[in-house]
Design a protein that fits this description.
The chain is α/β, with parallel strands linked by helices and about 250 residues long. The chain has helices at about 10-35, 50-55, 55-60, 70-85, 105, 120-130, 160-170, 190-210, 225-230, and strands spanning about 40-45, 65-70, 90-95, 110-115, 140-145, 175-180, 215-220, 235-240. Strands 7-6-5-4-3-2-1-8 form an eight-stranded parallel sheet. β4, α6 (about 120-130) and β5 (about 140-145) form a beta-alpha-beta unit. Bound molecules: pyridoxal-5'-phosphate.
Length: about 250
Amino acid sequence: MLEFHAPLPAATVARVRDNWQSLQADVAAAAQRADRQPDSIRVVGVTKYVDPETAACLPAAGCLDLGENRPQMLWEKHAWLQEHAIDAAPVRWHLIGHLQRNKLRRTVPCLELLHSVDSLRLATSLGEQTAGKALRRIPLPVLLEINISGEDAKTGLTPQEARDVLEATLSYDGIQVIGLMGMAGFSSSPKQAQAEFAQLRCWRDAWQSEFGLSLPELSMGMSGDFEAAIAEGATLLRIGSRLFEGIERRPA
Ligand SMILES: *Cc1c(COP(=O)(O)O)cnc(C)c1O
């Protein structure tokens, strides 16, 4: 739990704490139904809908993994916490959206995990730029983002591209692929979404044995489909709207 130099708005803190606790209860129940340990599932609280002060209510409530889909927004909230939290060190930042290569140097030092490696070019830049540099984490842990729905509007690698990226990264010191990320299609029914998550797990299993790698992390499941993702082995959930229910949305 994070403490701050000045108090956060009390009503927002209380509502976010309620949302966080009710989500945790639902995650634990879904884990139990899937015969899994609740502590094998980490919730990344996605703060993209709200301003930094509202976002800070999440770590104040105990959610210490935070995610943003745009690098600039991540920098801004990262900096806000550095300035206003008594000790921001326990917060772990996840980038869950596209990382432009010209934003890489500034972003990587803030990150716990990059969920969204979506091209060979990005993987190569990361492998080269982070290698040997005085950045926070070497190698940088990353996930490969796979287009599991097959929808054009969704970003991510095709399975064939992902295999190629995985193979290429084996020779880079700067990054280490530790798993896969995927998003169910906008128009997928709950059943389809679950089948898409199952497919992601199958590719993970196949590439683990093909390359002799350990790929323990599966980042899948959002506010609307996290229970299906837990049933299919998700280790990281990316949850936004559910955590900010009842709160006025003030994007920064
Ligand atoms: C916004 C976003 C989420 C969170 O979605 P909610 O439905 O609000 O929980 C998860 N993953 C990515 C990549 C996102 O951009």
